[in-house]
Amino acid sequence: DTGVSQDPRHKITKRGQNVTFRCDPISEHNRLYWYRQTLGQGPEFLTYFQNEAQLEKSRLLSDRFSAERPKGSFSTLEIQRTEQGDSAMYLCASSLDTAFGELFFGEGSRLTVL
Amino acid sequence: GESVGLHLPTLSVQEGDNSIINCAYSNSASDYFIWYKQESGKGPQFIIDIRSNMDKRQGQRVTVLLNKTVKHLSLQIAATQPGDSAVYFCAESKDKLTFGGGTRVLVKP
Hints:
heterodimer, A: mainly beta, seven-stranded mixed sheet, four-stranded antiparallel sheet, 0% helix, B: mainly beta, six-stranded mixed sheet, five-stranded antiparallel sheet
């Protein structure tokens, strides 16, 4: 257990529905990242926060995706009007901003879009 | 562009032998290079990193080598154990991590 928790662990939804994932990072970590991972591939960067500020968002990220970290603690990732191509594992990670490459990942939220 | 890739998708190794996992990168501006291990059903776990101005760093049973001339990164695992069976990713860091595609290591008893 890394101390990063994600909820729900599994979500099955129908195409066109909205889904929301929650991430609770390690409490003293000021950086929070969202990644997406499909089978056999490395995690793909989506976005990251420094405290409550969203500092970068992947150019590959559709407008249907939005993330928030309202009080600099937990974060939510919402996907609107889901498509089958959104099926993946959504990973959250946290770190200190001085940690450079050492991120602590949660176990992920697996999304299946039917 | 920026990319991090791996030469071998699957590596089978006898328990007790040493393992070497290789990775090529293309972004010379990265500050750090990192290795992660991912077991089935879990998120990636940090193993070791190396700063871009270094060429070697050792941890417990692991050594990372960085060759900036040919843009090559490797992870050596000494005396490989069954618990080392996993998928290994190299990644490069500049504000965020960019991961490669992964190598599966299978340890044979």
